[in-house]
Design brief:
The protein contains 14 helices and two strands; from the N terminus they run E-E-H-H-H-H-H-H-H-H-H-H-H-H-H-H. The protein is mostly helical. It is found in: Nucleus.
């Protein structure tokens, strides 16, 4: 959250017509209109920052700035509605509040689209939440088209470049927002080059800093997206930076496997070489992690009571999943596998090795989930 999220021309919360919060004893959703209660808003903010904000995609908000601006009556209504809506969608906030949250998101979307001609940081922040809501509801076409608007706004505001004239907090918030768009983009594109709207060649910003430094406004330089081979990760890079780098690897893995499956020819001939290169980069990624971030039951238990558990688990789940994504196209009979005629041209020893590694990493992925389940039982 930065000063750029303020829009003094937007209607105040008190004057805006919104859906009524359903009564706790009456779970039927009531669509009659009254103003939002400040206590409810603060309750939603607390829940958002406790449970939703740690998810890498949503970590571009700065709690202290956001709450201060809300208390001063300077927070944009569409952003308040978006945050309430997403909180109600992702968490169990009480009877009828899921439907209430959906109504808030619908109203926020209407406000954003009404001002589509004047892009702003707050508009993009709202759109990230709205897009994810549509994706959660499996309205992928709408999410896809709204993302086109969000990415266009980001490039119009030059979020893909550093902004040295701004204070550190504003710079870091912009960076995190741009990387959140990149996360959505690479997830939606699924390795298809023609669907990419935020190519890494156009993103000229450093990785996000440590979460503590962002929270306490402590200026920090990090690293670019592409790492130096065999080099340990800088301590300044936070879990969001690790996650972004991992999804960058994922996109390249999916590009490689899709090319081999769909186009065959020289793509299949080059496939073993590319697999070995991507294997090496995955190994370098794991070796670059600080010891406290490597996967172990001890590190898992140390985060059992912390919001930092979510990014830690996401990184290690994705890390093992990426190995499976890299190798599974060699499994004969799988719908997404390399066609049999093309596979017949490949070295059988290489194929056996890929299948074995796919199984091994699938087992390791299952072990991550089992370890998490055991940690849940311990903390109870």
């Amino acid at each position: 959250m930065t000063p750029e999220t303020v829009n003094s021309r937007s209607p105040s919360l008190a004057s805006h017509t919104l859906p009524r919060v359903p009564s706790i004893v009456q779970p039927v959703f009531d669509v009659s209109a009254v103003s939002l209660d400040d206590g409810l808003v603060m309750r939603m903010f607390e829940a958002f920052f406790q449970h939703v904000h740690p998810i890498p995609l949503y970590s571009f908000f700065h709690k202290a700035s956001l709450v201060q601006r809300f208390e001063a009556g300077q927070l944009d209504t569409s952003l308040i509605l978006s945050m309430i809506g997403m909180t109600c969608q992702l968490l169990d906030m009480g009877p009828g509040l899921r439907e209430y949250g959906a109504a808030c998101l619908q109203e926020a979307e209407a406000l954003v689209l009404k001002n589509i001609g004047t892009p702003s940081v707050v508009m993009i922040q709202c759109l990230v939440l709205i897009i994810r809501h549509h994706a959660h509801q499996r309205r992928f076409r709408k999410a896809f088209m709204l993302f086109a608007i969000a990415s266009r706004c980001a490039y119009a505001l030059r979020l893909n470049y550093e902004s040295p004239s701004l204070c550190f907090l504003a710079q870091e918030s912009r960076r995190r927002l741009m990387w959140s768009l990149y996360i959505i983009d690479t997830t939606m594109a699924g390795g298809a080059r023609e669907l990419v709207m935020c190519p890494t060649s156009s993103i000229h910003i450093q990785l996000p800093c440590q979460e503590r430094n962002f929270e306490f406004d402590l200026a920090q330089e990090t690293e670019p997206l592409q790492p130096e081979p065999k080099k340990a990760l800088a301590e300044s890079v936070g879990s969001l930076g690790m996650y972004v780098r991992l999804l960058w690897l994922r996109h390249r893995i999916l590009q490689t496997t899709k090319d081999a499956v769909l186009f065959g020819g020289y793509h299949v001939e080059e496939f073993p070489t590319k697999v070995h290169q991507l294997e090496s980069e995955l190994e370098d990624f794991e070796m670059s992690l600080p010891q406290s971030f490597r996967f172990s039951e001890k590190n898992l238990l140390l985060r059992a009571y912390s919001p930092r558990l979510c990014p830690y688990l996401l990184i290690h789940v994705w890390y093992r999943q990426l190995y499976c994504d890299l190798y599974r196209v060699t499994l004969r009979g799988l719908a997404e596998a390399i066609p049999d005629p093309e596979m017949d041209r490949m070295d059988e020893g290489f194929l056996r090795d890929c299948r074995k590694k796919c199984l091994q990493n699938g087992i390791e992925l299952a072990e991550v989930f089992k370890s998490f389940k055991r940690s849940e039982l311990v903390v109870r």
